Each structure stands twice: as structure tokens, then as C-alpha cells.
């Protein structure tokens, strides 16, 4: 049974919030009493997400922009402070996954993946930690992936960026735990989102992807965005006040299997 109020009154920034895991987590957080700042670069989808949350009586504002631009991060932090007076939680979730063999991988794609997936999280932490220090603490949850530690051919920059996120997460946890700032990573396996619908499309349809999911993820199916959202909720909430520097796997035993 769903609990309510696990994030009551907390001010939360979520990036990549217009679809997939970001949107699913935003909906769950709203149900748990959070006040939200949604960040995404897709204006129409972002507006639809805000409307949906408002219709459900949620407190929600948005910042439309690219998280690899420092200006977007600055605006998100300012928006949270102006609107809610504080920032309790950040869910650094936005990410992209262009694939290709390392020998043919364009330098520009490498730089873009690193900027969106990894540097944006560094910039957000840099901007938000001073605010959290003023308040006496906060929780940062960084979206990594099971692919930070296990990979397959073609995930050149993606795997490197997701592994970098774990390093960043641990460093922040070690540096700021005493001051009440926790930082953890989420490592999902296959999740049912647009990102994987594109993977299925490239493979010739969902029927072609299913056997691979079954082989790689002992759960036998993709996780839902809600199932990932509940793990993020735990790390965001005061239920996890002694948890910092950890990587929470939501991977249906993918990382446990040979
Ligand atoms: N889907 C999976 O199986 C899976 C597994 C492990 C980790 N992840 C990670 O979860 C995160 C969310 O993925 P998803 O599956 O929900 O994907 P998605 O494509 O459904 O959603 C990603 C969202 O991020 C936004 N976004 C992308 N680049 C952005 C940028 N530069 N600035 C602002 N917003 C941007 C997109 O517009 C989109 O709304 C990603 O970091 C991804 O790597 C996904």
C-alpha cells in the first residue's frame, strides 16, 4: 500500500523530468508531499508534465534547458530557492545513450555524453551544496546505471560516464557527510522507458529485445519507472539518513548474474 508524506514539505529538483524515470519519480514524489522543480530540454513534454502534476494538485515549477549548460543549472537552483526557499533533495537524472564502437565513436559524441551525463551532475552539486550547507543538509541522488560496472560492446562513453558518476557520488559523500549532505547513486538495469523503446526499434522491434532482457535480467522483464522511483524515494527521504556513498541497484539481479 502506498505511503503518503514521506517527502512532506521537501523542495526537490529533478532533471530529465519530462519523461521516463524522471517523470515517474516526479509523480511519486508529488504523491509523497514534495514541492518540485522539473528540469528538461523538451519544452512541450515539460509543459505537459507540469500540467499533469498541477492537475493532481501538486506544487510544481519548471526550468526548460539543457543540463550541460551552467545557466540551466543556475536557473534551476535559483527557481527552487525563489519558489520554496530551500533545496532538500536533488535527483540528477538526465542522461543520454548514443552508442558506437570506440574506433568509430565521434569525439563530439564523447564530449556530449560526458557533458550531459557527468559534468551536469558535477555542476549541479557545485551549485546546490552551498545552499544545502546553509540549511544544515540535504540529499543528492545521482542516476548511474548497472552499466557503470558491467557493459557490452558499443556503450563507449555511456559506460565511462556512468562509472564516473559513481566516483563523483562517493567523493561528495565522503566530503560532506559530516555536514548532513548525503549523496548516493541509483543503478538500474533494463527499465521500460523511451530510451529502451529506441533500443528495441533499432533491433527491429520489442520482440527482438525481449530475449536479451530475459538473458541479462533474471527478473525476466524490464523494471517500471515506479519501481526505480521507489528506490530514489528511499534515498531522498529521511528514512535513509545513515546511507551515503552507496549505489542502490534496481536491476532485477542483472549485476548478480554471470
Ligand atoms: N531506461 C533504462 O533502462 C535506464 C537504465 C539505467 C539508467 N538509466 C538512466 O536513467 C536516466 C533517465 O533515462 P530514461 O530511461 O528515463 O530516459 P528518457 O529518454 O525516457 O528520459 C530522459 C529525459 O532526460 C531529458 N534530457 C536528455 N538530455 C537532456 C539534457 N541535456 N538536458 C535536460 N534534459 C535532458 C530528456 O528530454 C528526457 O525527458 C538516464 O540518465 C539514463 O541513463 C536508464
UniProtKB/TrEMBL annotation:
InterPro entries: NAD(P)-bd_dom_sf (IPR036291), Sc_DH/Rdtase_CS (IPR020904), SDR_DHRS6-like (IPR051122), SDR_fam (IPR002347)
One family name in Pfam for this protein: adh_short_C2
Any Gene Ontology biological process: bile acid metabolic process
Lineage: superkingdom: Bacteria
GO molecular function, one term: oxidoreductase activity
Record key words, sorted: Oxidoreductase, Plasmid
UniProt similarity note: Belongs to the short-chain dehydrogenases/reductases (SDR) family.
Protein name, per record: SDR family oxidoreductase
Amino acid at each position: 500500500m502506498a505511503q503518503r508524506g514521506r517527502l512532506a514539505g521537501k523542495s526537490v529538483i529533478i532533471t530529465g523530468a519530462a519523461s521516463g524515470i524522471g517523470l515517474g519519480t516526479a509523480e511519486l514524489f508529488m504523491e509523497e508531499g514534495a514541492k518540485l522543480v522539473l528540469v528538461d530540454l523538451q519544452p512541450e513534454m515539460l509543459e505537459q508534465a507540469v500540467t499533469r502534476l498541477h492537475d493532481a494538485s501538486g506544487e510544481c515549477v519548471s526550468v526548460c534547458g539543457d543540463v550541460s549548460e551552467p545557466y540551466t543549472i543556475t536557473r534551476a537552483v535559483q527557481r527552487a530557492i525563489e519558489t520554496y526557499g530551500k533545496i532538500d533533495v536533488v535527483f540528477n537524472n538526465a542522461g543520454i545513450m548514443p552508442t558506437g564502437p570506440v574506433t568509430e565513436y565521434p569525439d563530439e559524441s564523447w564530449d556530449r555524453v560526458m557533458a550531459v551525463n557527468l559534468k551536469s551532475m558535477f555542476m549541479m552539486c557545485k551549485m546546490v551544496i552551498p545552499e544545502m550547507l546553509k540549511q544544515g543538509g540535504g540529499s543528492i541522488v545521482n542516476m548511474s546505471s548497472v552499466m557503470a560496472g558491467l557493459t557490452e560492446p558499443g556503450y563507449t562513453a555511456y559506460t565511462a560516464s556512468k562509472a564516473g558518476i559513481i566516483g563523483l557520488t562517493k567523493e561528495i559523500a565522503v566530503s560532506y557527510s559530516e555536514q548532513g549532505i548525503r549523496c548516493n547513486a541509483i543503478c538500474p538495469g533494463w527499465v521500460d522507458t523511451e530510451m529502451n523503446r529506441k533500443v528495441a526499434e533499432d533491433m527491429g522491434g520489442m520482440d527482438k529485445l525481449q530475449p536479451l532482457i530475459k538473458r541479462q535480467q533474471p527478473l525476466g522483464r524490464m523494471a517500471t519507472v515506479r519501481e526505480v522511483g521507489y528506490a530514489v524515494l528511499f534515498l531522498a527521504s529521511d528514512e535513509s539518513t545513515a546511507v551515503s556513498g552507496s549505489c542502490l541497484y534496481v536491476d532485477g539481479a542483472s549485476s548478480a548474474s554471470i
